[in-house]
Amino acid sequence: MTAKQFKGVHVEEVFRELDTEIRKLLSLVHEIKIDMVLEKDPQNKVEKAIVLSRRIQDELRGLRK
């Protein structure tokens, strides 16, 4: 496998992970909205969303290199 092919495989994996993580983040945001409407404390979900968004940012930054 050439370096270019290896990088292509790596990039595909990163995009698969990004797709999954972004879907999870959107679900969390939706759940947070529901919790707020129902006047429940969404703090735990907010913390999870922050951690997930940072992970997404790190993966996106890794694509720049």
Task: Set out the fold topology.
Layout: H1 3-37, H2 43-64
Unreliable stretches (pLDDT < 50, length at least 5) are 1-6
Listing every helix as H and every strand as E from the N terminus to the C terminus, the arrangement reads HH
Helical run tally: 2
CATH architecture: Orthogonal Bundle
Principal-axes shape call: elongated
Mean pLDDT, as a whole number? 88
Structural class: mainly alpha
Span between termini: 20 Å
Radius of gyration based on Cα positions? 16 Å
* Share in helix: over 70%
Query: How many structural domains can be distinguished in the coordinates?
Result: 1
CATH overall fold name: Helix Hairpins
Strand content: under 5%
Keywords: Plasmid
Pfam family, one: SSV1_D-63
3D architecture notes:
With 65 residues, this protein is mainly α. The protein has one domain: Orthogonal Bundle (Helix Hairpins), CATH 1.10.287. 88% of the residues lie in helices and 0% in strands. It is built from two helices and no strands. Helix 1 runs antiparallel to helix 2. It is elongated, with a radius of gyration of 16 Å. InterPro entries: D-63_sf, Helix_hairpin_bin_sf, SSV1_D-63. It holds the Pfam family SSV1_D-63. Keywords: Plasmid.
